[in-house]
Amino acid sequence: DAKTTQPNSMESNEEEPVHLPCNHSTISGTDYIHWYRQLPSQGPEYVIHGLTSNVNNRMASLAIAEDRKSSTLILHRATLRDAAVYYCILNLNAGGTSYGKLTFGQGTILTVHP
Amino acid sequence: DSGVTQTPKHLITATGQRVTLRCSPRSGDLSVYWYQQSLDQGLQFLIQYYNGEERAKGNILERFSAQQFPDLHSELNLSSLELGDSALYFCASSPRGNQNTEAFFGQGTRLTVV
Lengths: 114, 114
Known about the structure:
The complex is a heterodimer of chains A (114) and B (114). With 114 residues, chain A is mainly beta. Chain A has strands at residues 9-13, 18-23, 32-38, 45-50, 55-56, 61-64, 70-75, 84-91, 93-94, 97-98, 108-113. In chain A, the strands form 3 sheets. In chain A, strands 1-11-8-3-4 form a 5-stranded mixed β-sheet, with no helix packed on it. Chain A has a 4-stranded antiparallel β-sheet with strand order 2-7-6-5, with no helix packed on it. In chain A, strands 9-10 form a two-stranded antiparallel sheet. Chain A is built from no helices and 11 strands. Chain B is mainly beta and 114 residues long. Chain B is built from no helices and 11 strands. Chain B has strands at 5-7, 10-13, 19-24, 31-38, 42-50, 53-57, 64-68, 74-78, 87-94, 104-105, 109-113. In chain B, the strands form 2 sheets. In chain B, strands 2, 4, 5, 6, 9, 10 and 11 form a 7-stranded mixed β-sheet that branches. Chains A and B meet through strand 3, strand 4 and strand 9 of A and strand 4, strand 5, strand 9 and strand 10 of B.
């Protein structure tokens, strides 16, 4: 399975932008890049996903490198509520079949300082 | 609130026993996924159902089984419980059950085996 590599932890200050990097050098052309986050004592929460083009939604932006071997999740103004574990996941196309199952890694622990 | 309901929230049981975890997906979502989160293994995919049929299987033990009913709710049955089965069990649902769609997670069932 294609894997992702993320920093173990990052820190940010409230109201500043946060750029969370993810490397996925073995990505294949049909794999989608998904980001989820998990706040303490809660289930994972969908953040954003994309295939090739950059994506924006109300929560964040996803910047995908041209060769697709890396991506960056951008939180435009961090709040204390954004403190969570952020998971970068490749949602794979397995032999031509797309199931949508998520393979979680260790993720990045984001700490937001007031 | 993701719209995915899991019951019970907490469960304490003895080794060797059998339990059933229940999941009601978001209205209209056809696919249900089960995940296990333990301290040493992280979040692991167990099994996926789509419109009543098993679609993908992950690291699910033979002592565990699941099904999705005609009304699309799902149950995860865990039998011959061992101490190591203590974990958070999450259910997620998605509209199409493929890689180009988000998954919505419930709040989880915390299982403690004593």
